[in-house]
C-alpha cells in the first residue's frame, strides 16, 4: 500500500498513523518514518494481528492521509504485528514486560557495549531498568536504539528440547526395528513351514 505526502511533516505522519490505529482499537507500539519515506508501524490487538488486518489498517491510514492533503506515491507503509521478539518502545511496554528477558541495542556509549542481553526489571524514574548478569543498569530511553523481548514461545529449555529430540529418535528407531522384525519373523515362519513338509 502506498501513500504520498504533500507538505506533511514526518512527525505529523507518525501522529496521524497512531491516531488512526488507536481509533480502530489497535495498540500502536511504534511508528518510524525514515528519510526515504518508509513508514514502519508496529501494532498489537487483543484478537491478534492478521495479514488481512494489516492490509485493512494500511488502507485506513492512506484514506486518512488523503483527507490530510496527500497524493498517492510518496510514502511506503509497512504495518506489522509485534512478533515473538516484540519491540519495546514505550514506558508502558517496559512496565508490562518486567521480568522478561530482553535484548537491547544501544546508541554509542563508551561505558557499555552496543548490544546487551538481560532481564527487564521495569521502568523507574524515566529509565529502563535491566539486570545484566550481576549488574543492574538504568538506561534512559534516548540511549536505546532498539529493545526487544527474547522469544519465549512454547519454547522449551535446552534440556527439554534435547529430551524431545532423543524421544523422537527413539521412536524412529523403534518403528524401524519393529518393521524389520516383522519382515524377518515372517520369513522365518515360512522357512519353518517348508522344513516341516
Topology overview:
Elements: E1 2-3, H1 10-23, E2 27-33, E3 38-44, H2 51-67, E4 75-80, H3 91-96, E5 101-106, E6 115-124, E7 127-132, E8 135-140, E9 144-149, H4 158-196
Parallel strand pairs: 3-4
Antiparallel strand pairs: 1-4, 2-3, 5-6, 5-9, 6-7, 7-8
Overview of this protein structure:
This protein has 197 residues and is of the alpha+beta class. The chain has 3 domains: 2-80, 2-Layer Sandwich (GMP Synthetase, Chain A, domain 3); 91-149, Roll (SH3 type barrels), CATH 2.30.30; 157-190. The chain has 4 helices and 9 strands; from the N terminus they run βαββαβαβββββα. The protein has helices at residues 10-23, 51-67, 91-96, 158-196, and strands at 2-3, 27-33, 38-44, 75-80, 101-106, 115-124, 127-132, 135-140, 144-149. The chain has a 5-stranded antiparallel β-sheet. A 4-stranded mixed β-sheet has the order 1-4-3-2, covered by helices on one side. Helix 1 crosses helix 2 (51-67). The longest helix has 39 residues, at 158-196. The protein is globular, with a radius of gyration of 28 Å. The protein starts with a strand and ends with a helix. Residues 1-7 and 177-190 have low confidence and may be disordered.
Strand arrangement, major sheet: 8-7-6-5-9
Global geometry: globular
Distance between the termini: 81 Å
Fraction in helix: 25-40%
Question: What is shown here, in short?
Answer:
With 197 residues, this protein is α+β, with helices and mostly antiparallel strands. It is built from 4 helices and 9 strands.
Amino acid at each position: 500500500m502506498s501513500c504520498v505526502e504533500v507538505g506533511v511533516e514526518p512527525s505529523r505522519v507518525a501522529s496521524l498513523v497512531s491516531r488512526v490505529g488507536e481509533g480502530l482499537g489497535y495498540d500502536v507500539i511504534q511508528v518510524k518514518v525514515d528519510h526515504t519515506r518508509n513508514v514502519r508501524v508496529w501494532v498489537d490487538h487483543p484478537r491478534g494481528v492478521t495479514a488481512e488486518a494489516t492490509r485493512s489498517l494500511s488502507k485506513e491510514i492512506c484514506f486518512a492521509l488523503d483527507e490530510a492533503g496527500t497524493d498517492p506515491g510518496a510514502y511506503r507503509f509497512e504495518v506489522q504485528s509485534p512478533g515473538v521478539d516484540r519491540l519495546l518502545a514505550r514506558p508502558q511496554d517496559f512496565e508490562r514486560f518486567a521480568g522478561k528477558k530482553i535484548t537491547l541495542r544501544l546508541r554509542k556509549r563508551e561505558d557499555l557495549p552496543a548490544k546487551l542481553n538481560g532481564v527487564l526489571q521495569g521502568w523507574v524514574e524515566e529509565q529502563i531498568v535491566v539486570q545484566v548478569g550481576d549488574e543492574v543498569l538504568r538506561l534512559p530511553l534516548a540511549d536505546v536504539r532498539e529493545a526487544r523481548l527474547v522469544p519465549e514461545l512454547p519454547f522449551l529449555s535446552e534440556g527439554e528440547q534435547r529430551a524431545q529430540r532423543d524421544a523422537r529418535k527413539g521412536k524412529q528407531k523403534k518403528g524401524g526395528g519393529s518393521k524389520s522384525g516383522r519382515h524377518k519373523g515372517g520369513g522365518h515362519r515360512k522357512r519353518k513351514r517348508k522344513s516341516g513338509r
